[in-house]
Design brief:
By secondary structure, this protein is mainly alpha-helical. The chain contains two helices and no strands. The termini are far apart.
Length: 110
């Protein structure tokens, strides 16, 4: 039993010894103490669940940050690769156009 409930029961016992006329209310007081204990336990469970949700969300945020950083690195690498392949394409196209022009010139000379 939680410490708070034990203190409530002790206070109740002390109160009842001082005021015996209130003995008829013991059942009602015990019910009140039990209800308060249940509410306290539920509030503690809710609090624990909230804290666990915060921890899960924080872990998720950290994972998403890592994924974002990895995606940024991949994006930068893709941009670099695209620039390199563009230069290679332009060089190959220029070589093709030069060869094509030479071929056209050779056909005209025949």
């Amino acid at each position: 039993m939680p410490k708070t409930a034990n203190l409530c029961i002790a206070a109740l016992a002390l109160y009842l010894t001082v005021h015996p006329a209130m003995a008829k209310d013991i059942s009602a007081l015990q019910t009140g103490v039990e209800n308060a204990r249940q509410e306290m336990e539920q509030a503690k469970a809710d609090y624990d669940n909230s804290n666990e949700q915060i921890a899960r969300t924080q872990r998720n945020v950290e994972e998403q940050k890592q994924k974002l950083e990895e995606a940024k690195r991949e994006w930068e690498e893709a941009k670099k690769n695209a620039a390199e392949t563009k230069r290679a394409y332009q060089a190959a196209r220029a070589k093709y156009e030069k060869a094509h022009s030479a071929l056209k010139a050779a056909w005209k000379q025949q």
